[in-house]
Amino acid sequence: MNVVIKIEKDKKKGIVSFMKSLLEKGIVNQILLPMKTPTKTSFAYILTKKPDILDNCDPIAPVMPIQGARIVSKLTKKGPLKGVTAVILRPCELRALRELVKLRQAQLNGLLTISFDCPGVFPLRDYLNGDKEKMDEIFWQAINRCELEGSRPLCSICHLFTGELADIEIGFGGIEPDTICLTSHSEIGERALHELGYEEATLENRQIYLAEIKEKKLAKRKEFFEEFRHKIKGPERIMAVLTNCINCHNCMRVCPICFCRECFFDSDTFKVSPEDYMLRAERKGGLRFMPDTLLFHLGRMNHMSISCVACGMCEDACPTSVPVARIFALVANETQALFNYIPGKDLEEPIPYLTYQEEELKEYEQPYTEEYAP
Amino acid sequence: MDFTPKIVYFLCAWCGSGGSETAGAYRLKYPENVRPFRVMCTGALDPVYILRCLIEGADGVVVSGCHPGDCHYNFGNYRGRRRIAIIKKILDTLGLDSDRVWLRWVAHGEGKKMVDTAKEFNDHIIQKGINPFNNRWDT
């Protein structure tokens, strides 16, 4: 079902009144959405039952301090909440959440997921140090173009920027400027829109508009990867990029996919005797401390790149500005293409590590056709 | 040539190691710089260990296990193949020479194939030369 809502003041107010009506009409029991903290300096997710609180909320934040999938995972890991919970998530957060559902780290039961045309987010550091009011304004102006100046590098090449995986999608692009549109993609979403008493509308131009933007972004994405691949190719260059890493493992801690209670790279495997360190030092002529920088990044790629949603959290969290997210997105793009896998897209499709086909990947086996005689 | 590469050979406990036993029974020889390691299954080998070998100074890594369809655990080697494919893809993307990792199936009776693989890989790595991470202390 498609719905077009006329809005009076601005888009933000339109979304807020929609969210409030969900609560007031009893369609949902509680809402989880981003809100400016009382100090007005940053954003945080708030879980609330009170419609009044929503008056001052920012349903769509211009930054992503915490990945929403992590929040929903924390909330629902031990079971669903009573009643229906509406939750606003960015497209990448939603994809990560669906990936976590497959990994049994979160539940979609009792959730009404709402997503939207995402223009991207500002890097957290830029926002915290910058003119916040001005950046808020720029953000809301960019929202129907789905393109934000000065966003995270990965946001500018994101081609999965629409909320089509959510129960209800909020749209801004390709429609009249003083309207927002709502599209339901599931039964629960359709029921909610019906109960709110909206009327069906057609959104033909919107699809064309979005397809155009997507094509543009895909071209940009390809160009970016080609250029970036050259920058990090080879042992010399990759070490030049990773050499600033201080082994804080922040990138792993903020990653929505890295759900392990104890990361392998924090485990006792890497806490060895001093003699062992000395052995390693002697073997290579010396040993960098902290050790295992390259192993950490390559190993993490190997563990989670197949599920990476390219949200860019890792790069935001890096204190030394290593372009982690760009490296991971580049690698994830390749490994996911190996199995034509888009993380979070299909809840029924198993994660490639957990399944197999009998006839596949022959090119990765070393052929042995005749006897080897040196 | 005086370059003797360090080569790690991961063999699965059922077919790969069986192949080396058969090789032993026939008194077949393979280069002494190839160090065999027994793992329970190619699917049980986390590619992080392959990475660790390559970063910590091995010049090449071979993995051998049961032929597809023959796995003792029914589908371990299918999963192993996916893991090796992913790790090779990652190395390729970053330009880290995925040709230093080989996957070749060796059955219990194929002692000759196991020895041939060790020899062939050894020659292949000698031709490639030393692993660039071998002398880097900053990894």
Would you kindly provide a written description of the structure presented here, covering whatever features stand out?
The complex is a heterodimer of chains A (374) and B (139). With 374 residues, chain A is of the alpha/beta class. Chain A is built from 13 helices and 7 strands. In chain A, strand 6 and strand 7 form a beta hairpin. In chain A, helix 2 packs parallel to helix 3. Chain A is globular. Chain B is α/β, with parallel strands linked by helices and 139 residues long. Chain B has a 4-stranded parallel beta sheet with strand order 2-1-3-4, with helices on both faces. The model of chain B has no long low-confidence stretch (mean pLDDT 93). At the A-B interface, helix 8, helix 10, helix 11 and helix 13 of A face helix 2, helix 3 and helix 4 of B.
Structural class of chain B: alpha/beta
**Low confidence ranges of chain A:** none
* DSSP strand count of chain A: 7
Mean pLDDT across the residues of chain B is: 93
Using only CA atoms, what is the Rg of chain B? 15 Å
- What is the distance, rounded to the nearest whole angstrom, between the alpha carbons of the first and last residues of chain B? 28 Å
What is the average per-residue confidence, as pLDDT of chain A, rounded to a whole number? 91
Using CB atoms under 8 Å apart, which protein chain pair has the greatest interface?
A-B, 52 and 46 residues
- Main sheet: strands, sense, barrel of chain A: 7 strands, mixed
- Give me the secondary-structure category of chain A: alpha/beta
Low-confidence stretches of chain B: none
Strand content of chain B: 5-15%
How do the strands of the widest beta sheet of chain A line up side by side? 1-7-6-5-4-2-3
Shape label of chain A:
globular
User: Total number of helical segments of chain A?
Assistant: 13
Largest sheet entry of chain B = 4 strands, parallel
Strand percentage of chain A lies at 5-15%
From the N-terminal CA to the C-terminal CA of chain A, the straight-line distance is: 69 Å
